[in-house]
Amino acid sequence: MNKDSPGGSTASTERWNTVFRAAAAEPRRQLVVSLLDAPPGTSVSLPESAINPDVPQDPQTLRQELYHEHLPLLSDGGFVEWETDPLEASRGPNFDQIGVVFDTLHEHAPELPDSLVVGCLRLEVEEQQRLDY
Fold it and tell me: Which domain holds residue 128?
């Protein structure tokens, strides 16, 4: 397979890099999780859907960061589409590329080291639900 072909290793590597860049900041991770929890085709309101309840951030500051940094990055990857008035986001055409990474993490929460689970509300809930069965 040619490294530069659409299905080649260069394209695949860049897709993975784009997914992991998008997942590298807490507000973006929270937004992806919020969109996973929302029915497909619906929007979530911002900044509320990007706030980690365990580490609350000033909503006005987060709103500015979302507008200038986080939403453009997620949009450039095709992961979200967003509107400014009101500020909201929905799944983009490539959302499944990042959503599957989070779904897989949540599915395997009990197998993850505690250092990755503790402090992530969704992973803590997933792990506790599995332990309760």
Answer: 25-132
3-state helix, strand, coil in the chain (%, to 5): 60, 10, 30
Structurally, the chain folds into a number of domains equal to 1
Give the residue from 49, 43, 86 showing the smallest Cα distance to 70: 49
Q: What CATH code is carried by the domain that includes residue 96? A: 1.10.10
> Tens digit of pLDDT for each residue in 34-87?
999 999 999 999 999 999 877 778 999 999 999 999 999 999 999 999 999 999
> Does residue 32 fall inside a structural domain?
yes
- pTM of the complete model beyond 0.85: no
Spatial CB neighbours of 50, under 8 Å, sequence gap ≥ 6: 27, 28, 30, 31, 34, 62, 66, 70
Which tens digits make up the pLDDT trace of 2-37? 444 555 689 999 999 999 999 999 999 999 999 999
Domain assignment present for residue 19? The answer is no
Distance CA 7, CA 92 (A): 21
**Could you tell me if residue 17 is inside a domain?**
no
Domain-located, residue 92: yes
